[in-house]
Design brief:
Largest sheet of chain B: 4 strands, mixed
Number of domains of chain B: 1
CATH superfamily of chain B: TusA-like domain
Radius of gyration of chain B: 11 Å
CATH topology of the largest domain in chain A: FAD/NAD(P)-binding domain
Bound molecules: flavin-adenine dinucleotide
Distance between the termini of chain A: 30 Å
CATH class of the largest domain in chain A: Alpha Beta
CATH class of chain B: Alpha Beta
Strand content of chain A: 25-35%
CATH topology of chain B: Translation Initiation Factor IF3
Oligomer: heterodimer
């Protein structure tokens, strides 16, 4: 029997598992192939919802579904986080002490914010990267009575659009609260333009100008002085704030670093086959790859579809046929009721169009449709 | 010419090379020279801009067979 083991039950792992279950139904029924998912949590979080929680537009209870209910019944699912990867012997050891062997391994353990990368960030900044932080941000936005709002971004981070979306959404939020005349915005970004995707930067900068949002590029936070409410940058400049909103720099999971699978938890991955560099039967998808593309759910989704097809072929003695071409699709909320999107791949850059209400409503619908999407029903 | 510490960021894409240079600069001492190698054009444009903003000194920059080399001295 060919054993496919998927480590990580988030967006990438769930889509991959269901995709395999659909393609390999007969082989799995006949016990010629097995698919097992190991995850760190019995619940699956819809992470993009955290942004809406921060603006009081989604409840925390809307973010979670039991992981078991998202997986095809033919898939073996265990909440048993992996602690040791023994790639030379085709097995992993999990927290329970149990060892799981495999013929093919897919690693999709995601990424995590590292607020401690910048001294003072943890204590003084609000962010939306955990449930607790999103709720605190909601409270801070709700009770803000005006002053200087600073937006500080570290790279790499999950979802490339979050710095822009937070800024646009705060603008409309404070407008609705009739606070705009008491609020100033300072948006900062680590590289020489306001967004890592050039065309997105070209679209966003004039939007900022129109809204009166000032921005400073080539700004890498070095330290936050909470007492003085100042952010000092590596470049020597200082931004003062009353409300500090951060998009913290991310790393891959600690278990990836500890097992020396990749520096900072990013696993060296072939951009076309999604194979882990130097291994024939190990594949990587989602945030934990070292690929120079967005760490986004849609990236994990498109990668899982390619990998599902290739792994199904490998498990049935065929050869992988499909290449991942770098496809990513991201909505961009441009305020409270307008949105646009960026769709791109390795060869074709995004060309964001003027935001519309229709795209915003489509995004809100997707927030609900996500569960059917990971089940493989969309 | 004195030895420069090499920051090899080849194969890394924007903003990777700039981030690696920033980290290496943090660890370097004033007066020390670093040489960044990068295959990313965007970064080759960003890095001199960053050096100017911070006030370090760009000593040389060149491109050969798709590899950009930027040599910089830590000024403060
Ligand atoms: C605020 C916010 C907004 C976002 N907005 C968008 C958006 O608009 N569009 C978009 O496309 N993306 C967005 N994203 C990004 C998206 O959520 C992630 O990129 C996506 O979830 C990555 O999928 P993944 O499978 O790599 O990792 P995840 O979905 O994070 O899953 C990782 C899984 O690994 C498990 N795991 C961890 N450690 C172990 C271990 N040791 N052993 C076994 N399992 C383990 C975890 O329990 C989890 O199930 C957003 C994210 C955030 C936080």
């Amino acid at each position: 029997m060919k054993r496919i083991l998927i480590v990580g039950g988030g967006t990438g792992g769930t889509i991959l598992a269901n995709n395999l279950a659909r393609r390999l139904r007969h082989e799995m029924d006949a016990a010629r192939v097995s698919v097992t998912v190991l995850s760190a949590s019995p619940r699956h979080m819809y992470q993009p919802g955290l942004l809406y929680v921060a603006f009081g537009k989604m409840a925390v209870s809307d973010l979670y579904v039991d992981q078991e209910t998202l997986l095809d019944p033919s898939i073996h699912f265990h909440v048993d986080p992996v602690e040791t990867f023994d790639l030379d012997h085709n097995e992993v050891k999990a927290k329970s002490g149990k060892t799981y062997g495999y013929d093919y391994l897919a690693i999709c353990t995601g990424s995590r914010p590292t607020l401690n990368a910048v001294p003072g960030l943890m204590e003084n900044a609000h962010h939306v990267y955990t449930e607790e932080a999103a709720l605190k941000t909601a409270e801070a936005l709700r009770t803000f009575e005006g002053g200087r709002v600073a937006i500080v971004t570290g790279v790499p981070h999950k979802c490339p659009m979050v710095p822009l979306e937070l800024t646009f959404m705060m603008y409309d939020y404070f407008k609705d609260r009739e606070l705009l005349d008491k609020v100033s915005f300072k948006y900062t970004y680590p590289i020489g333009r306001v967004h890592s995707l050039e065309n997105v930067a070209k679209w966003a900068a004039p939007e900022f100008d129109r809204m009166g949002v000032s921005y400073e590029t080539l700004f890498n936070a070095k330290e936050v002085d909470g007492a003085q409410r100042r952010i000092h940058s590596e470049e020597g400049s200082v931004v003062e704030y009353d409300l500090l909103i951060a998009v913290p720099p991310h790393k891959g999971m600690e278990v990836i670093e500890q097992n020396k699978l990749g520096p900072s938890g990013w696993i060296p991955t072939n951009r076309a086959t999604l194979g882990m560099e130097g291994r024939d039967n190990v594949f990587v998808l989602g945030d934990t790859t070292n690929l120079p593309i967005s760490k986004a759910g849609s990236t994990a989704h498109y990668e899982a579809e390619v990998l599902g097809e290739n792994l199904a072929r490998l498990a049935t003695d065929g050869r992988p046929m499909r290449s991942y071409e770098g496809k990513v699709f991201c909505f961009i909320e441009a305020g409270k009721d307008r949105a646009t999107y960026a769709s791109f791949d390795y060869k074709n850059p995004p060309r964001p169009q003027p935001p519309t209400r229709a795209i915003h409503w489509f995004k809100l619908a997707y927030n609900r449709l996500y569960w059917n999407s990971v089940r493989g029903l969309l | 010419m004195s030895e420069a510490k090499i920051v090899d960021a080849r194969g890394s894409f924007c903003p990777g090379p700039l981030m690696e240079l920033i980290a290496a600069m943090r660890a370097a001492s004033v007066g020390e020279e670093l040489e960044v190698l990068s295959t990313d054009r965007g970064s080759a444009e960003d890095i001199p801009e960053w050096i100017k903003k911070v006030g370090h000194t760009l000593i040389s920059s060149s491109e050969e067979a798709g590899v950009y080399r930027l040599r910089v001295r830590k000024a403060k």
